[in-house]
Structure formats: C-alpha cells, structure tokens
Design brief:
The strands form four sheets. Strands 1-4-3-2-5-8 form a six-stranded parallel sheet, with helices on both faces. A six-stranded antiparallel sheet has the order 11-16-13-14-15-12. It has a two-stranded antiparallel ribbon with strand order 6-7. Strand 2, helix 1 and strand 3 form a beta-alpha-beta unit. The protein starts with a strand and ends with a helix. The protein folds into two domains: 157 residues, HUPs (Rossmann fold); 120 residues, Riboflavin kinase-like (Elongation Factor Tu (Ef-tu), domain 3), CATH 2.40.30.30. It is of the alpha/beta class and 307 residues long. The chain is elongated, with a radius of gyration of 22 Å.
Length: 307
C-alpha cells in the first residue's frame, strides 16, 4: 500500500475511488466504506484509497479526550490488511481549517486524490466551519467529474456503530462487544521491549509493549489474549497496567505471557489482541501470591481457548 504522510503537495499516480474520514478504530462502519471503494476501484480500473489526517485537531477532539482506538501506525496496518492501494494522512493545519468547502473539493479531492468516485458516511463534514457535507459532494460531483456514494451507518443492537460507541465499550472493559463493533479483536501494536524480567524468574517469561499516551486502553487488568508475531499466532494472558506488586512506576505496559513460545522476541513487532477480560489488576502481598494467581490466570485462559 502506498502511504502518503504529512505532505500537502502530491497527486495520486492514477485516478481513484476514495473514502474520506478520521477512521479511528477502522470499525465495521469504516470497513463498509472501504469495501465499497474497493468494489468501485475494480469495476472502473481505479486506485482504491482512504484520505484521513495525520492528527485530530483539538477543535474537533478536546485535549482531555485525545485518546484514540488506533494509533496512526495501527490504522495504517489495518487499512493495508483491508486491501487498499493507498492511504493519505494529510497535514491538519490552520490553513486547512479555513479552506472553503469547494476549494477543498477542487484542490484536494480533485487535485490531490484525482477522485472519480467518492465514498462517505452520512455524517461526513469538511471545509471551513465544517460547512461541506455529503449533500454538497453529491451536488458538486457532476461538475467536477466524480460520483458520490453516501453510505448509511452500520448498526449493532439497534445502535449506529461509531468510534464513540467503540470507545464506550472499551472503557467499560466489554471486549466482546467492542470486538464485534470493530469487526476484529481490539489490539495494541508495538515493538517488544525489555521489562524487569520478573516473569522469567517465575517461569512465566513475558513480552512487554509500552503503548503511547494517546492510545485508548480498556481497564487495567488481566486478559485472555492472542499475539501475532513473526507471522505466527500465540495464545496467552496479558496484564494491562502498572504491575503494582513489583513496581512503583506509573507507566502502563502491555505484558503478555505466551503459552507456547520460548524464543527471544526483543525488538520484534508484535500485535496483542485482547479477547476477554479475566480480572482487575491487583496488588499482592508478595511475589509468591502473584505467581499463584498468574498460574490460575493461565489455567483459566487455556480453558477458554480449549487448550
């Protein structure tokens, strides 16, 4: 997949079918847009693309809520897995915020994206004061030579699927519901880093990933998990939190014990998928009590995975 990041002066190498939005989480509603883009691209010999921003401006997402279901790199991986030809992460600047909607159409949708098909949700807004909308795209499309497809929201249990809905379920630790809304397991991706190596002393070696502060995380606790690494899938248990029994650090880590792995994972790219919430993170009286609980967590998780 072609990845264009932080560049304003560009043009896709061929005409495109494109979807536009923030795509936080790339949930089932977003996937519906991507699927239609790919379908149109194949039918008309176009490039399939997604247009989004390199950051979400504070005017749209206040600082206290600057936590996202997917990081930019995670979003890029997911869109590539969905089979898009290109992702554009356009710089969100004050200049862009002041762009008149028709200028946005002319300069970006036509000039940069070379769009022949534009696919958006019913609530898509663009341009100065968010004055541009799906209806404007439908109106201006014939003049500028592109077709607009406005897609209704996907629903789950009579509620529209949205990034807000996913965030609510994640914050409650409702992983099963969140994963249904996402259309895949919620995950944390990153490089495996060195920890305090206590797991090895307890005969339960672990992999440590440290998510960025902007990553929206579910409640601290222990989860049944699946880890994707080096093209393989490993079942395990993951502690999401600060490890209060053995550390006073406020840093949150994603610490995973894999059931069937004995290699050296340091420096590898890994994706930890959180499937089921098992229990809250706890402070134990001593390491021996912690080890006993960890063994119990492993036994329970294995029974869930039918291992």
């Amino acid at each position: 997949m072609q990845y264009i990041h932080g560049v304003k002066d560009f043009a896709l190498k061929k005409p495109s079918a494109v979807t536009l939005g923030k795509f936080d989480g790339v949930h089932r509603g977003h996937q519906k847009l991507v699927s239609l883009v790919k379908e149109k691209a194949v039918q008309q010999g176009l490039m399939s693309a997604a247009f989004t921003f390199d950051r979400i401006p504070l005017s749209i997402c206040p600082q206290k809520n600057q936590h996202f279901i997917t990081t930019n790199s995670e979003r890029r991986v997911i869109l590539e897995r969905l089979g898009l030809d290109a992702e554009v992460e356009y710089p969100f600047t004050e200049e862009l915020m002041q762009t008149e909607p028709e200028d946005f159409i002319r300069e970006i949708i036509i000039g940069c994206l070379r769009a022949k098909v534009v696919v958006v949700g019913t609530d898509y807004r663009f341009g100065k004061n968010r004055m541009g909308d799906a209806a404007m795209l439908e109106e201006k499309g014939p003049e500028y030579g592109f077709e607009t497809l406005v897609v209704e929201k996907e629903k789950f249990q009579e509620r529209e699927i949205s990034s807000t809905y996913v965030r609510e379920e994640l914050r409650l630790g409702h992983m099963e519901t969140a994963n249904v809304l996402l259309g895949r397991p919620y995950s944390v991706q990153g490089i495996v880093c060195h920890g305090n190596k206590l797991g090895r002393q307890l005969s339960m070696p672990t992999l440590n990933i440290y998510p960025p502060d902007s990553k929206l995380l579910p409640p601290k606790g222990v989860y049944a998990s699946v880890t994707l690494m080096e093209g393989k899938k490993y079942y395990g248990v993951t502690n999401l939190g600060t490890k209060p029994t053995v550390s006073d650090s406020p840093s949150i880590s994603v610490e995973t014990h894999l059931f069937d792995y004995s290699g050296d994972a340091y420096g590898n790219q890994a994706e930890v998928q959180l499937l089921h919430f098992l229990r809250q993170e706890m402070r134990f009286n001593d390491v021996s009590a912690l080890q006993k609980q960890m063994e119990s967590d492993v036994t329970f998780a294995k029974s869930m995975f039918l291992l």
